[in-house]
Amino acid sequence: MPSPTLAEPEDVRAVRDWLKGRARILVLTHERPDGDAYGALCGALLALREAGKECLGYLKLPLPQRYARVLPPVPELILGTPLPRTGLDGIVCLDVTGLERVERPAGIDANFNGLPLCVIDHHADHTRFGQTEWVDARQAATCQMLLHLLRDARGRVSPPVAACLLTGLLMDTGGFRFANAGAGVLRDAAALVDAGADLHGLMTSLFLRESLGRRRLEARLLAQAVSLHGGRVLYSVLTPHLLAEFGVPPQDTEGLIDVLRGIEGVDIACLVQPEPGAVRLSLRSQNSACPVNGIARQLGGGGHVLAAGARLPDVNVAQAVTALTEETRKVLGREAVGG
Ligand SMILES: [Mn+2]
Question: How far is the CA of 148 from the centre of ligand 1 (A)?
């Protein structure tokens, strides 16, 4: 894995110029946010305020406990309610692959009310949807891109912003355990620690402490997991009922799939999540010869080589599992042929 490098300078410059020309900015991220999304959203809002900009951010649901514990309070964040009347003059979308994945507040339409759109993202399957875009799939996290942007612009990052950005960098690299955690990531993490982020505190809260309910839910998911293709694919079904049974909030499912991914012999792990009118498949690969982004794309979704997902409308769990069985068979078969 090559170490992340700076993106084309003109893209970064375009984003910086765009930001300079705005006074009241709305910051959005993707639906069903993860640690990189929360870190990037909160870090951007704090940094914009420090730069003297008025800004607002939006999340449909409150932050999961693990993030609420470690991220600084961000008063600019609106939770689930319509935006106050504002004279917005631009929207920033962070860590979002495509237009349809943006978590939008009531009052902001699919055309973003015609406001100028600036997009910063690191997904390989990003589909351009902003007028001003900086997209670099070599970066491990959107938070890593924000660090470069801030360092270039101001040469420094404040301690609260550093805490947010390190949170995203940690979560998108699995605590420096994934293949994307190269030397560049470690150098950037060190820069964030130098800037005041509490690495040990973040590691503890993000990876070493969970509620008993969540740990019991993980145990249940493992106990009911089903093997396919001689154990190379492992899936488990996570229903809203199961979340309720263990008292785990619906926005706190990030990382549950890792209990399946970590099992010996598993190349592809899948969490099957029925929701109203659809079944969502989250996919993780332990083996770059068995990419899951192609599977996700085949099923109408997308993502990275090793982490992807799809939402299958109008199917039940059995039909989703049949689709999973077929698509993973093709990928494992190709790998066997390819060597
Ligand atoms: Mn990300």
Answer: 15
Provide the CB-side half-sphere exposure for 250 (13 A, CA): 10
Map residue 174 onto helix, strand or coil: coil
123 CA to middle of ligand 1, Å? 7
C-alpha of residue 46 to centroid of ligand 1, in Å: 19
Domain limits for position 282: 212-338
CA 37 to centroid of ligand 1, rounded, Å = 6
pTM score: 0.91
How many A from CA of 65 to the centre of ligand 1? Answer: 19
Residue 4 in any domain: the answer is: no
Task: Kindly state whether residue 2 falls inside one of the protein's structural domains.
Answer: no
Parallel, antiparallel, or unpaired for β 77-79 and 278-285?
A: unpaired
Is the same domain home to 248 and 327?
yes
Q: What is the structure's pLDDT at 85?
A: 78
Same domain, 146 and 282: no
CA distance linking residue 15 with residue 119, whole number of Å: 8
pLDDT greater at residue 182 or residue 151: 182
Confidence of residue 221 (pLDDT cuts 50, 70, 90): very high
pLDDT digits (tens, 9 = 90+) for 148-173: 999 877 788 999 999 999 999 999 99
Q: Is there a single domain that holds both residue 218 and residue 84?
A: no
What would the two tokens of residue 150 be?
């801030």
At residue 9, the pLDDT reads 81
- Residue 82 domain-assigned? yes
- Distance (Å, whole) CA 200 – CA 223: 32
CATH number at residue 194: 3.90.1640.10
Distance from the alpha carbon of residue 202 to the mean position of ligand 1, in angstroms: 17
Please tell me the predicted confidence (pLDDT) of residue 337: 61
